[in-house]
């Protein structure tokens, strides 16, 4: 069985802080990690490798430094790695990104494609289903658990208040939830192999069969008009009110913040 | 085909088990506003099996028109028949805007449809406006883990699609006895390799959540006073779908469990909302929760250091305030 | 000379740090209070190959280098001195001598399970009457047919009772002095090999420190490690490598205490400001940081020397001596800078201070290290 796992290198947005003076994001020194949902997808693939001998390929679209997440994935046990990188692919929204990735994946053999549900920087959850659309294969999102049965995958598909057990024929695409599993650690030997022994296949623009109008900025129907920091936390407010007023005060604040 | 050929604000009216989801009404409310600015109508598109009766609900919350796609293939949500139906609606009716709830369904359906329609999709919008200059939709959403806001436009493709966070937009006041202007539509469904099989449906029963995973924590300290008093906090937490945590003092006193402890020798938490109730705010406790997005503190002692980190500090007796909060919270949830 | 770490070493550090933070740190206090050997953690480390980092793949190891191994011990020790020494004693003192001096049969039988995590290792040299005077071995091994019969005892043995495989030393010919000592590989469960007292210690309290007792313990000649009479040399060479592990442990303890202290002084307020804003604190932190960095450079240099040079005793002795003294100094200062809170068990620094003390003593006291260094230099 052949599995392709799409992973993304993202800044650890849990560690990002706002500059208290300028109100802008401090991106320097923020560690880069494998997107958590993607890592869970990778772990699911590696578990299938352990149990049924699947071959696991990892692929990422990004700048040259995204090589690091491919190495980490190989140090965890992935067999082959592909880096899709070119200035021409830059500035892409999810449609152009998914088009580019689909064009790359077309060059590989696959039974199952796994992506993370969403990335912690973009937070859109769109690329997975869009890749499936470009490849004309079924997709099941929000997978909490997957099992392989013959030529099908049985998925525990999460909704807000329930699960569906879904059966889908391969080839298919699944988007994985971070809570699916606990991704394994790398091993020291795995790291040395990933850096010293293994190769990352690099695909640039000429390597992909895809139209110029469909990739990068040109291939992106959505554009960022403006971006601005969330309002910086002002100094806290302290009030002394009677119990009813206190409760009202708190409810008002919660409404303001869209918590209720 | 030019952009001018696309007219109308459409919303995907999500329904589950023949009940319209709350977000659908919110989308109609917002859609109505946008439609007015664009000089057009808001149409609710509802998919399912045996759902024609739901059309009036949608009209009651402001839908000018309802398109009903009723077919056995649509009984339970699965990606392909739903995507095919929505895409066919777009092909036939050519809306300029199509809104979806950013739900477990919407966040799967909308991307698939947008790719099929080769148009732009903006996720998890918290704000939608019409640009008066060019009538384009301006869609604002959080990014970077919620650390920044971005405003997105889709100037050259139609429809302009967006998923919208539930609980953000306003639904209008219900119009009693409203009757829907209904159009039925069925594009025909042919099973292909993209169709999947739903083998089983399991409804969830809520579990005990790890405090580190909870989005809202109601945390109590020495000031809570007793194990019995913690039930006041538990009631409040239940009313909000929140989880109870505590400071070390409460654990040591036997009022709470060790796995609920927040702080230096407990767990570090970063919930969206942290209630610090009867917690003084000693440095060891702060170490475990100061990264919470929003901190609301209730404490009798106005000089308690917790007020230095709280966004909103209420000086008062929690045993009087929190039960009132629980009441208000229950009513607010019921009204939804 | 390029002081930047290679990609693989940086990635390895990230791995060890992640593991230490997530798996080891949450248990450190409990392990110390209950004096329980962290069996669960050891099982996890075995699965990830942490117990065979510098051992070649053909013998079940990870095929990395001594520097990677030292970084592992460093990162583990940053959060838990006990866990660091378990890996160090197993790797440097048991796996390493078998790798270096063992026959191919011995490597197949013992090195592979040690490296791949099946079995835990230990080293028994110290006796009640033979500490720094290691040559004063009383434990005897008398040949008898195809075996040796061993009588005697060892004390203060790290991983004692928990370990499955032991490299021990005994006198085979008293008349020859240090040239009459021989090394043996012994398995737990061998008749006549029992355990005595478990030591109650000041620090590294979760480390299993036991007395080993040999009563007419029969060991086949095929379990002799290296040649008869060559044991002392094997012990000394082994300890050279072990010193790098202990230096890494000391480095980790110092670095962990420094990190905790930096975080604390930025939070703690007195006289209307954080104590980090007082120059006394700043100067102390400056000195501590410099010493930790200097210790790190000596440790890493010794680790690299072991893999690239024939002799590395001098580098190892300097690293162990300096890192252990820095560890004691930095952890003590850490407690001081934490004030009253630092003395309570709610904070980690008092444990780190208690853990640090042993690094100045075992695997060659600081006095022994000074003997080694002066002998090399004068």
Describe the structure.
The complex is a heterotrimer of chains A (260), B (336) and C (378). Chain A has six helices and 15 strands. By secondary structure, chain A is an alpha/beta fold. In chain A, helix 2 packs across helix 5 and helix 3 packs across helix 4. The longest helix of chain A is centred in the N-terminal third of the chain and has 17 residues. Helix content of chain B is 28%, strand content 26%. In chain B, strand 8 and strand 9 form a beta hairpin. The longest helix of chain B has 18 residues. Chain B starts with 8 loop residues before the first strand and ends with a helix. The model of chain B has no long low-confidence stretch (mean pLDDT 92). The model of chain C has no long low-confidence stretch (mean pLDDT 97). Chains A and B meet through helix 3, helix 4, strand 9, strand 11 and strand 14 of A and helix 3, helix 4, strand 7, strand 9 and strand 10 of B. Strand 14 of chain A pairs antiparallel with strand 10 of chain B, so a sheet runs across the interface.
Portion of residues within helices of chain B: 25-40%
Largest sheet of chain A: 9 strands, mixed
Q: How many angstroms does the end-to-end distance of chain B come to?
A: 42 Å
Helicity range of chain A? 25-40%
**Quaternary status of these chains?**
heterotrimer
Characteristic key phrases:
heterotrimer; A: 260 residues; alpha/beta; Rossmann fold; nine-stranded mixed beta sheet; two-stranded antiparallel ribbon; 30% strand; globular; C: 378 residues; alpha+beta; four-stranded antiparallel beta sheet; 11 helices; 53% helix
Question: In brief, what are we looking at here?
Answer:
The complex is a heterotrimer of chains A (260), B (336) and C (378). Chain B has 336 residues and is α/β, with parallel strands linked by helices.
Could you give the topology of this structure?
The complex is a heterotrimer of chains A (260), B (336) and C (378).
Chain A: E1 2-6, E2 9-11, E3 17-18, E4 25-26, E5 32-34, H1 36-52, E6 55-61, H2 67-76, E7 80-84, H3 94-105, E8 112-116, H4 127-135, E9 139-149, E10 152-158, E11 162-169, E12 172-176, H5 188-197, E13 200-203, E14 223-229, E15 237-240, H6 243-256
Parallel strand pairs in A: 1-6, 1-8, 6-7, 7-13, 8-12, 9-12
Antiparallel strand pairs in A: 2-5, 3-4, 9-10, 10-11
Helix pairs in contact in A: 2-5, 3-4
Chain B: E1 9-13, E2 15-16, E3 19-20, H1 22-38, E4 42-48, H2 55-60, E5 65-70, H3 79-93, E6 97-101, H4 106-116, E7 121-125, E8 127-130, E9 137-143, E10 148-153, E11 160-164, E12 182-184, E13 197-203, E14 216-220, H5 230-240, E15 243-246, H6 248-252, E16 273-277, H7 283-289, E17 294-299, H8 306-309, E18 312-315, H9 318-335
Helix pairs in contact in B: 3-4, 5-9
Chain C: H1 7-34, H2 39-47, H3 66-79, H4 81-101, H5 104-115, E1 121-124, E2 140-144, E3 147-158, E4 165-171, E5 181-187, E6 193-198, E7 209-220, E8 224-225, H6 231-267, E9 269-270, E10 273-274, H7 279-308, H8 313-338, H9 340-343, H10 349-357, H11 366-377
Helix pairs in contact in C: 1-3, 3-4, 3-6, 3-7, 4-5, 4-6, 6-7, 6-8, 6-10, 7-8, 8-10, 8-11
């Amino acid at each position: 069985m052949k599995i392709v796992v799409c992973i993304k290198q993202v800044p650890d947005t849990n560690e990002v802080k706002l500059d208290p003076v300028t109100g802008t994001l401090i991106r320097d020194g923020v560690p880069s990690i494998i997107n958590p949902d993607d890592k869970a997808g990778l772990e699911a693939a590696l578990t299938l490798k352990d149990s049924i001998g699947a071959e696991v390929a990892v692929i990422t679209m990004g700048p040259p430094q995204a090589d690091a997440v491919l190495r980490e994935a190989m140090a965890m046990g992935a067999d082959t790695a592909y880096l899709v990188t070119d200035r021409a692919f830059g500035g892409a929204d999810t449609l152009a990104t998914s088009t580019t990735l689909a064009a790359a994946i077309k060059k590989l053999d696959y039974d199952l494609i796994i992506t993370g549900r969403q990335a912690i920087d973009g937070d859109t959850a769109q690329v997975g289903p869009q890749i499936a659309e470009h490849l004309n294969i079924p997709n099941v999102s929000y997978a909490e658990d997957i099992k392989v049965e013959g030529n099908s995958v049985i998925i525990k598909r999460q909704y807000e208040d329930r699960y569906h057990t879904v059966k889908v024929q391969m080839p298919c695409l699944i988007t994985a939830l971070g809570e699916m599993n606990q991704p394994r650690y790398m091993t020291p030997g795995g790291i040395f192999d990933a850096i010293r022994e293994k190769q990352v296949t690099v695909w640039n623009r000429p390597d992909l069969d895809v139209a110029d109008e469909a990739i990068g900025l040109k291939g992106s129907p959505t554009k960022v008009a403006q971006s601005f920091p969330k309002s910086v936390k002002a100094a806290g407010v302290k009030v002394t009110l009677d119990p009813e007023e206190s409760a009202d005060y708190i409810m008002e604040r919660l409404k303001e913040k869209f918590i209720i | 085909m030019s952009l001018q050929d696309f007219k109308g604000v459409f919303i995907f009216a999500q329904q589950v088990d023949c009940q319209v989801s709350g977000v659908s009404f919110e989308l109609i409310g917002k859609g109505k506003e946008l439609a007015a600015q664009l000089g057009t109508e808001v149409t609710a598109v509802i998919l399912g099996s045996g759902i024609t009766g739901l059309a009036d609900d949608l009209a009651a919350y402001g839908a000018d028109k309802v398109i009903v796609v009723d077919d056995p293939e649509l009984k339970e949500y699965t990606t392909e028949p739903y995507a095919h139906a929505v895409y066919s609606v777009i092909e036939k009716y050519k809306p300029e805007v199509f809104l979806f709830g950013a739900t477990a369904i919407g966040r799967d359906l909308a991307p698939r449809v947008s790719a099929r329609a080769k148009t732009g999709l903006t996720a998890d919008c918290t704000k939608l406006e019409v640009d008066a200059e060019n009538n384009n939709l301006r869609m604002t959403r959080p990014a970077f883990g919620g650390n920044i806001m971005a405003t997105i436009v889709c100037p050259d493709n139609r429809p302009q699609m967006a998923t919208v966070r539930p609980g953000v937009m306003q639904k209008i006041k219900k119009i009693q006895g409203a009757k829907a202007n209904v159009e039925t539509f069925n594009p025909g469904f042919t099973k292909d390799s993209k169709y999947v099989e739903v083998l089983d449906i399991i409804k969830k029963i809520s579990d005990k959540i790890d405090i580190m995973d909870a989005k809202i924590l109601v945390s109590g300290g020495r000031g809570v006073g007793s194990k019995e008093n913690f039930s006041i906090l538990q009631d409040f937490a239940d009313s909000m779908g929140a989880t109870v945590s505590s400071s070390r003092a409460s654990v040591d006193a036997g009022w709470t469990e060790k796995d609920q402890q927040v702080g230096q020798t407990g767990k570090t938490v970063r919930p969206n909302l942290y209630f610090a109730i009867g917690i003084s705010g000693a440095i060891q406790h702060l170490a475990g929760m100061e990264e919470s997005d929003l901190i609301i503190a209730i404490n009798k002692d106005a000089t308690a250091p917790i007020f230095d980190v709280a966004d909103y500090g209420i000086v008062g007796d929690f045993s009087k305030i929190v039960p009132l909060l629980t009441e208000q919270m229950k009513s607010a949830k019921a009204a939804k | 000379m390029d002081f930047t770490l290679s990609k693989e070493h940086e990635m390895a550090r990230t791995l060890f740090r992640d593991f230490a933070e997530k798996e080891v740190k949450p248990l450190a206090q409990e392990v110390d209070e209950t004096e329980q050997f962290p069996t669960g953690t050891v099982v996890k480390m075995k699965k990830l190959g942490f117990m065979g980092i510098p051992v070649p793949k053909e013998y079940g190891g990870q095929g990395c280098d001594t520097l990677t191994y030292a970084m592992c011990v460093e990162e583990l020790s940053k959060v838990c001195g006990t866990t660091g020494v378990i890996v160090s004693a197993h790797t440097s003192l048991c796996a390493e001598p078998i790798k270096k001096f063992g026959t191919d049969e011995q490597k197949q039988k013992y090195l592979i399970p040690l490296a791949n995590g099946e079995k835990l290792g230990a080293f028994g040299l110290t006796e009640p009457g033979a500490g720094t005077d290691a040559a004063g071995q009383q434990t005897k091994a008398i040949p008898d047919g195809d075996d040796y019969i061993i009588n005697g005892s060892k004390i203060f043995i790290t991983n004692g009772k928990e370990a499955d495989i032991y490299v021990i030393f005994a006198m085979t010919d008293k008349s020859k002095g240090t040239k009459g000592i021989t090394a043996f590989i012994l398995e737990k469960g061998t008749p006549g090999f029992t355990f005595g007292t478990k030591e109650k210690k000041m620090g590294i309290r979760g480390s299993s420190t036991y007395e080993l007792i040999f009563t007419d313990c029969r060991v086949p000649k095929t379990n002799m490690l290296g040649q008869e009479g060559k044991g002392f040399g094997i012990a000394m060479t082994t300890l050279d490598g072990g010193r790098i592990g202990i230096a890494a442990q000391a480095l980790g303890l110092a670095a962990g205490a420094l990190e905790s202290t930096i975080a604390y002084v930025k939070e703690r307020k007195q006289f209307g400001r954080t104590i980090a804003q007082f120059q006394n604190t700043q100067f102390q932190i400056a000195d501590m940081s410099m010493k930790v960095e200097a210790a790190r450079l000596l440790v890493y240099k010794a680790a690299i020397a072991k893999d690239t040079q024939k002799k590395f005793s001098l580098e190892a002795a300097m690293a162990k001596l300096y890192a252990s003294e820095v560890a004691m100094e930095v952890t003590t200062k850490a407690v001081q800078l934490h004030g009253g809170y630092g003395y309570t068990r709610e904070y980690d620094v008092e444990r780190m201070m208690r853990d640090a003390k042993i690094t100045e003593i075992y695997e060659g006291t600081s006095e022994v290290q000074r003997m080694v260094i002066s002998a090399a230099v004068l």
